[in-house]
Design brief:
Elements (H helix, E strand, L loop, with lengths): L1 E8 L4 H7 L7 E8 L3 E6 L12 E5 L4 E4 L3 H19 L7
Antiparallel strand pairs: 1-2, 3-4, 4-5
Length: about 100
C-alpha cells in the first residue's frame, strides 16, 4: 500500500550550516510517497506545540532510513496497523516463512 504525504527535508547541508554559521535549519516539506511495507517502526516526532513537527510521525525503514512525515501520528499508526493486519491475514496461519 502506498502512503502519500510530505516529508521534512533539510534545506541546507548540515556541514554547510556550520560553515555558514547558521544556528538552525528549519528545512522544508516536500511531497513524498512510499510503500508501507518498508516501515519497521514509528514514533511521535514531538509533542512540543511550538515545534515544526508537532504531532507528526517519524518512521524508521528496513533500510535504516528515518523520515519525518507531516501525517499526524494517530492517523499514521491507524493506517499502518490496518496495513500490517491485512498482510498478516493474507499470509494465513498455515503459511510458514523460513
Amino acid at each position: 500500500m502506498i502512503h502519500k504525504c510530505n516529508v521534512h527535508c533539510h534545506s541546507v547541508d548540515p556541514k554547510e550550516k556550520d560553515l555558514l554559521g547558521l544556528n538552525d535549519d528549519t528545512g522544508k516539506w516536500l511531497p513524498f510517497a512510499f510503500d508501507l511495507s518498508i516501515v519497521v517502526a514509528c514514533k511521535l516526532s514531538t509533542d512540543e506545540e511550538e515545534e515544526l513537527a508537532f504531532n507528526c510521525t517519524t518512521i524508521f525503514t528496513e533500510f535504516g532510513d528515518t523520515f519525518i512525515l507531516d501525517t499526524m501520528y494517530d492517523d499514521f499508526v491507524s493506517k499502518w496497523e490496518e496495513y500490517v493486519t491485512g498482510v498478516d491475514e493474507a499470509s494465513g496461519p498455515d503459511d510458514l516463512e523460513l
